[in-house]
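Researcher: Quick sanity check before group meeting.
Model: Go ahead. Protein one:
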Amino acid sequence: PKGIVVTGVDGLVSGHSDEDLAFVCTATGPYQVEIRASSKVGRYRLRVEGPRPAEDRDGIRTEAVKAVWDANQEMGENEGAFRRKIRSFEHALPLWRQLGESRRAAETLYLTAYIRSNLPDAAEQTAADYQASAELWGSQPDREAHTWQWRALIYAGKILKQIGRPDEARQRYEEALKVARTMEDLRSQAISLNNLGLLDSDQGDPQRGIESLTESLAKAREIQERKIEANDLINLAAAYEQLQDTQRALQYEREALEL
């Protein structure tokens, strides 16, 4: 009634699962709900619950939605803005858990990790956030959730590799590969195998790396993913250089250049 925006919601991706718009009205008067399909044309379902008296859960949900909305409205690209976004997400997380909303908690942890990755000296917590997000996504039954589980595991593995914890990175990559195979997603399988192969080569086991990279290359070619194919070829060339097989290294380098 005062003519100000009281809350909002912004989905993680187009076509994502249901999104909550929640607000407990404390002042009487007309309220306007505005809906915009800004990124994808299609059909949307709007379900309105009410009017009814507010319950305790409604207040908790309103607070969680508002915290996520506040984070999404923070547009700065500096450390201060990143920390404010993280504080808002961290405020929302226990509220989603209190409501038993594991999917919302998984989203919030993923977004927290994504933003935290921009901060200095935050790699360990970022990897932990991605891992926690992956575990929650894994508890969901649908393919979309497993896609986000795979992404969280890949990011966790990359960060663990960067901070010198290769064994844990391998575990995350292997878990991601298992998820990708369960989904029968060749692209995700190829990326997982590429990361495993590069990790093995970097850890001084190029022969093992070549096995994963060769399998990744075959899958990338099957689905015509040229970017993954090029990465596989470059990494295979480096692995054969480690084995002092110059002829094969040059062969893969030439193939990469042709792409």
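Researcher: Fine. The other one?
Model: Protein two, sequence then structure:
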Amino acid sequence: TDGILHDTVLGAIPNTVKFSGSGGEPVKVSMDGFGSDYLFTGNSKASAAGTAVNVVPVQTEDQDSFAVGSYITIDAATDSTFRKVTAKTAASLTFAGTAGTWALNDPILAALPTGTHGGSPLSGSDGTVTWTPSGRAAISLILKSWEISVDNGIKMIEDEALRETSSDFIVGYRKVTGNFSFLARKDWVRSMAHRNLFTAVDVALTIGSAAGKRFVFDLDKIEGGFQAPEYPEADEVVLNFPFTALSTGTGEAELKITAN
């Protein structure tokens, strides 16, 4: 318990979300973005006992380890109440809510909520991907790996005078990009040779096969680029297809994600 340190981001704003997968591995989701403020919560021990009060003294050397706004527990083994620090004077922490009672040297720790988990990871080896050029027959790709990234283009307002934290953000130009890595096959190579005959490509990537446990990534219109094929000495030929998804109408129509 002495090693618990807690970082808290306030006003978190996801800017980029990336979905990725490959054979034999679970599908992964990663996010990065911004926050408007940050809190650090350390740990300490009560430097004096207290009875039915709302101010708890911590060790002097730990007084800078608790930011106002932090949530703490005092002797969590007997009292699991989450208490919000509303003020701090030197090594004394004032908290809101129900008054507490504790003994000398009772542990004061960051309050860590119990996580809730549900469902099972999606397998990267179960699903389908269909490539349908406009006016052409659909083909199925043999994927090695894939990724789809959504970049919201958010710009935080973080250079304001007379402020320590960000107060707002500016919505930017959203971009949906990605890459498919797949095995070269006759029907795929032929489709690419005819790329000047179609104006748009509809790609549907389905992860999972059982009803109620599927995610569909629907890219109604993508603009693709091409990279040189990979020619290993004694292995299959691999093609990489980087792309940008385009909107097909109003709203955020570049990418649709459906659970079914």
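Researcher: One line on it for the slide.
Model: The radius of gyration is 27 Å.
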